[in-house]
Amino acid sequence: MQDTITIRGFVATDPAVRHTASGTTVAGFRLATTERRFDRDAGTWVDAHTNWYSVSAFGQLGSNTAQSIKKGNPVIVTGRLRVRDWSTEERSGTSVDVVADAVGLDLGYGSGAFVRNQRASAPREEPREERAAGAEPAEDFGGPAHDAFAPARADRPADDGGEEQEGDERVGEEAARTPGVLTAA
Questions:
Q1: CATH number assigned to the domain with residue range 3-110, chosen from the 4 options 2.160.10.10, 2.40.50.140, 3.20.20.70, 1.10.3660.10
Q2: By the 8 A CB rule, do 73 and 10 touch?
Q3: Under DSSP, is residue 21 helix (H, G, I), strand (E, B) or coil?
Q4: Per-residue pLDDT tens for 91-123?
């Protein structure tokens, strides 16, 4: 069994990037979570104990983490908890590590913009059923897509799903293909 944990806190160090012997990217950073308590005598909120975690993110998550977060950012991390005792000749202690499954900016403190990674993929052959029916396969999900998710074509009228409502924004095809990172505003 593994212990899964979700932590809200602030990034205490800029992510450090390294690579494993097999070439996998690993981004590591320290995360601090400080408990807040209401002091009835003073009538204000005060900081209590701070917990410190070492977070490691591997692969594409590690690359995206290194590009997207920096010291001071509020984040939410979900991952596998590892608590280890350690000792040297002079000191000993306990290390609390999290191997991240997900890392994201905490949008309760600000806003961000998400941009999907571009994947380099070799052309793939369409299944016979799709070729015969003339349907377009969905490139990202491995199957036919609903028409609402398919790009507009000249031979197919665009269906906007009804009247445009106030505040309705659509992302252009070019913007959706531009690689980028999640950033806090």
A1: 2.40.50.140
A2: yes
A3: coil
A4: 999 999 999 999 999 999 998 888 888 876 666
